[in-house]
């Protein structure tokens, strides 16, 4: 069989070039990728100008990346690829808390804090208490579980987007649960925000008539010995964009009420004003597969 390239045999000729890849998984990934890529190019009759534009787009996507800007994650997010990979890797059968996209703003380590601490290091925003418990899917309390949280402020900015105005670590915290898997922290109600849209991903959204907004949410990564780590959000019930998240991250089970409450005992315990928002949640982790 000739190894010469032709339009008709492009997939097999290029796949054959990868046939001796020693790692079987890498061989499968590349062979399948080439097959789908060529099928796509043939399907749309891709032109040289379009290929050049795509290469230019990916080049600019790389060029805008730095320690705090990760445009490739953003691209994967707006294409729904992040959520698809997440869904396939975290099939839960209903008992575990559902996962969602990590996003690009977990690029700085969350400062360790004590239970009940405030993660808000700058003034402003609506006082909010988040309490909860980490459990296994079987209901076992996961004492000592780690709960890593980060969120945007009431203007929709993360600390890393606003370094001159707020201290690093603002609205981030790493908590160790008590022996019953319980945790509590004070914060402010986050606002919806646009994903960074001043780069290539923003161009893509604009060219396709899509808005860049995400509904208001708080990010969580939860870990406990012997259990599968969970990356998820709490979405604020009633927030705009719950039905059109730019990165497809919303799951109904993650939409959480943050009612305005007047609870004198909780206010005194946590040093909150008389009226504050309160969300109380359970986070259920499946056991680690052996
Ligand atoms: C975030 O929620 O932090 C996020 C997720 C995906 C893209 C941009 C931001
Ligand atoms: Fe976010």
Automatic annotation (TrEMBL):
Coiled-coil residue windows: none
Entry annotated with the keyword RNA-binding: no
InterPro entries found in the cross-reference section: Catechol_dOase_N, Intradiol_dOase_C, Intradiol_dOase_core, Intradiol_RC_Dioxygenase
Segments forming domain Intradiol ring-cleavage dioxygenases: 130-158
Keyword Cytoplasm: no
Entry keyword set: Dioxygenase, Iron, Metal-binding, Oxidoreductase
Cofactor(s) needed: Fe(3+)
GO MF term list: dioxygenase activity
Entry superkingdom: Bacteria
Signal peptide coordinates: none
Pfam family, one: Dioxygenase_C
Family as reported in the entry's similarity comment: Belongs to the intradiol ring-cleavage dioxygenase family.
Protein name (Swiss-Prot/TrEMBL): Dioxygenase
Protein species of origin: Nonomuraea marmarensis
Lineage: Bacteria, Bacillati, Actinomycetota, Actinomycetes, Streptosporangiales
